[in-house]
Design a protein that fits this description.
Number of strands: 18
Bound molecules: flavin-adenine dinucleotide
Largest sheet: 8 strands, mixed
Length: 415
């Protein structure tokens, strides 16, 4: 793999950009791999990358039924933060956030990580208490976050109306080193690095069955034929229930569409991410100037990857109260992604009832921020067969044993 650098740009400029090589190879599948990862979203690619980087396992195929990064990884609103309430959550999200800080240098790929700060507005007294509790927990966890006053909120985000008629802003949980990154670049950066290590990323290759013998996985059936493997990692977000069904077990997961929309581009007006969980909407400004707006999930299970008018209305109506200036904006486009929700709104990184088969899912509405940390933890689980400290609490057995890691009450919304 040729490194990207200022020198490379100058060299290619001189020879009319004829020397750039493809970022990743597009090989045909081999008959057998040591590890097959199903799903070339951020989590699947990060799993493969850290298997190679941390454990030297490079005989890997990542199988993707569509195009890489075409699932939720390429459809999300890119909020990155780590100020979760529960200890296991704060540990994995903070690991992830710290890996994002050096992603561009580590992978020689510009991820446009922008630690511009994430603010979660407190608009009820219940939220003040909740966020103050989180701020205290974060101090103990070593996560840098603070509870700030309404005046400080207005100072950081001048376009906010802090005296909203129904829900005035009463304070906010503020994480200054949280922010966002370019979603496609995360998938592309990992894909390029995986391909450079000799791994095969096989797009348009849908897994249609999981084969096993004596309770241990032997391979998968795909739209490109049968492929054998020693170990299988299922990392397919909203399709986790389907893949688990193929492997012969059930998951405590519901799949629903989550929607987002963007406005026409405008001049810079807000340089951090703001989440308003009581009215349920969140907003940031992209580098192109569009206001990126996210709302809630559909109220019923479904697999539709598209937007709907009632969601635009609900989300924008909620946000207009806090950001009156957006009432003048034209909305340009909207879309949906299929998110995988667990009851406690925490992920699953786990062994499964099928031998040598591992699953990573349940990141729901908030798994973009966790891609590097999740890949790191999943790689350890796949390589060693047992979870390391980051994944230990996120096993499937917690649902049988009642050891929930409850982030649903803590965060209200888990982006
Ligand atoms: C609108 C929206 C906004 C969001 N906003 C945020 C946010 O601001 N911050 C945040 O942290 N998170 C956010 N999320 C959540 C985040 O996007 C996801 O949690 C995360 O991207 C999941 O990544 P993944 O790699 O697990 O899944 P995906 O990117 O969905 O990848 C899974 C891949 O598996 C493939 N696949 C499925 N079935 C098969 C099969 N049978 N064979 C082969 N391949 C298969 C799919 O095609 C897909 O490419 C948002 C999600 C949505 C939809």
């Amino acid at each position: 793999m040729r490194r990207y650098s200022a020198f490379a740009i100058a060299r290619e400029a001189l020879r009319y950009h004829t020397g750039w090589e493809r970022a990743w190879r597009s090989p045909e599948p081999k008959k057998r791999y040591r590890v097959i990862v199903i799903g070339a979203g951020g989590h699947g690619l990060a799993t493969a990358y850290y298997l190679g980087k941390n454990y030297g396992i490079r005989d890997i195929a990542v199988l993707e039924k569509g195009w890489l990064g075409g699932g939720n990884t390429g459809r999300n609103t890119t909020i990155i933060r780590s100020n979760y309430l529960q200890d296991p959550s704060a540990a994995i999200y903070e690991k992830s956030r710290s890996l994002y800080e050096t992603f561009s240098q580590d992978l020689n790929y510009n991820a446009m990580f922008s630690p511009r700060g994430v603010m979660m507005l407190a608009q009820t007294h219940h939220e003040i208490r909740g966020y103050q509790r989180t701020a205290h927990a974060n101090v103990l966890q070593g996560v840098q976050t603070e509870f700030i006053s309404p005046e400080r909120v207005k100072e950081i985000v001048p376009i906010i109306n802090i005296e909203g008629p129904r829900y005035p802003v009463l304070g906010a949980l503020w994480q200054p080193r949280a922010g966002s990154a370019r979603h496609d670049a995360i998938a592309w950066g990992y894909a390029r690095a995986c391909s450079a290590m000799g791994m095969d990323i096989i797009q348009k290759c849908e897994v249609t069955g999981v084969r096993s013998e004596g309770g241990t996985v032997t391979g998968v059936s795909t739209s490109k034929g049968e492929i054998d493997c020693d170990k299988l990692a299922i990392v397919v977000a909203g399709h986790s229930g389907q893949l688990a069904g193929m492997a012969g077990f059930r998951l405590p997961i519901e799949s629903v569409a989550l929607q987002a929309l963007v406005s026409e581009p405008i001049k810079p007006c807000m340089d951090c991410v703001v989440m308003a969980n009581t009215v349920h909407g969140y907003m940031s400004q992209s580098d192109k100037g569009e206001m990126v707006i996210g709302g809630g999930a559909d109220g019923y299970n479904n697999y539709t990857q598209r937007g709907s008018f009632h969601h635009i209305e609900e989300t924008v109506r909620a946000l207009v109260e806090t950001f009156p200036m957006i009432s003048r904006l034209k909305m340009m486009r909207m879309w949906g992604g299929i998110v995988d929700m667990t009851g406690d709104r925490s992920p699953i990184i786990s062994k499964t009832p099928l031998g040598n088969t591992f699953i990573n899912c349940g990141w729901g509405t908030g798994g973009f921020k966790s891609i590097p940390g999740s890949g790191w933890a999943m790689a350890e689980l796949v390589a060693k067969g047992e979870p390391g400290p980051l994944a230990a609490e996120f096993g499937l057995d917690r649902f049988k044993e009642g050891r929930f890691i409850d982030e649903s009450v803590a965060a209200g919304v888990a982006h």
